[in-house]
Design goal:
By secondary structure, the protein is mainly beta. It contains 2 helices and 20 strands. The strands form 4 sheets. Strands 1, 2, 4, 5, 7, 10, 16, 17, 19 and 20 form a 10-stranded mixed β-sheet that branches. The longest helix has 10 residues.
């Protein structure tokens, strides 16, 4: 059985924080607020994660609307790790709803992560064609690949891991995952179809009493991750407000969560809305889980917002 903190760090690595295992979207006629802003179930059986051998693979496309180098960039990553001797104490959080919380500290880690062997990871369905990432170094690792431009060409991505399948090698496997569409924001607070590249105000004020309504074109993502992160001049680098919810097109960020950002000295904030698709590929040895691959692909829209 996994140690408590080893199990939690696995979820942190794929950005699925404190899943509430909520199976429905709530009642009522609106997808905003209350029980509608829940956390989707993306892991059906947590026994499929009952292992110290964990791979984290992903493709992330970022559409950055502001900053010194705006535009699209894509990041491809693959890590194969043994977490037997590694633990983490998660950062403290203040929760405002099932979906939304604020970080109030940094996480603390201890121990070491051992690298498991693989020979090559192949990604198919990307704009640049088939991408083969070879392991290199001592111990051999797959280096992340960052390149300009969009990531996803096909409706789905095929990921194949080739290893020697030795005693310290992560097992070979192939998995298919749907490619996520880039989010389109249709409302931010009182602004309809906001220009996210122009620095709209989101009303960060101690006097705020209404939630911040965020709407987007609903899609087929497994979950939506919304983040508001202090930018220029911030004196609390760990601080951020974060909401993980359904891809149903609407989220209410509570007024108290927005108020939490007020004391920070930042003059602007990063606003990110991320559409994620997730697959857990569990590799069995009889009834036991030998290894688990956490595969997460995302499309991220990022802009700068003001108080």
């Amino acid at each position: 059985m996994l140690k408590k903190y080893s199990y939690l760090i696995i979820l942190v690595f794929v950005c699925v924080v404190s899943l509430a295992w909520i199976s429905g979207c709530g009642g009522g006629d609106s997808n905003c607020g209350g029980d509608n802003d829940g956390v989707p179930t993306i892991i059906d059986d947590d026994e499929d994660l009952n292992t110290y051998w964990v791979a984290r693979l992903g493709v992330s496309e970022l559409n950055q609307l502001t900053g010194p180098e705006p535009g699209h960039s894509s990041l491809v990553q693959a890590f194969f790790s043994d977490f037997t001797d590694f633990m983490v104490q998660l950062a403290d959080r203040d929760y405002y709803t099932n979906s939304c919380f604020a970080y109030t500290s940094r996480q603390v880690t201890s121990g070491t992560i051992e690298t498991l062997g693989v020979n090559m990871v192949t990604f198919e369905g990307l704009v640049g064609g088939q991408l083969d990432l070879m392991a290199s170094g001592d111990p051999p690792k797959i280096d992340p690949r960052l390149y300009p431009g969009s990531a996803f060409l096909e409706d789905s991505i095929t990921i194949s891991v080739a290893s020697s399948d030795g005693l310290t090698d992560f097992p070979s496997f192939t998995e298919l995952i749907a490619a996520p569409e880039m989010p389109v924001v249709t409302q931010l607070g009182d602004k309809i179809n906001p220009d996210m590249g122009s620095g709209p105000s989101i009303g960060i004020s101690i006097d705020r009493i209404e939630p911040l309504v965020v709407k987007w074109e609903a899609g087929a993502g497994d979950y939506i991750d919304v983040k508001i992160i202090p930018g220029s001049g911030s004196d609390t680098k760990h601080l951020k407000v974060r909401c993980v919810t359904y891809d149903d097109g609407c989220l209410e960020i509570p007024a108290a969560a927005i108020q939490y950002l007020v004391p920070d000295l930042a003059t602007n904030f990063q606003f990110k809305i991320e559409r994620h698709n997730f697959v857990l590929h569990s590799i069995k040895d009889g009834d036991a889980t030998k290894a688990a691959a956490l595969i997460d692909v995302s499309s991220i829209l990022e802009g700068t917002v003001l108080r």
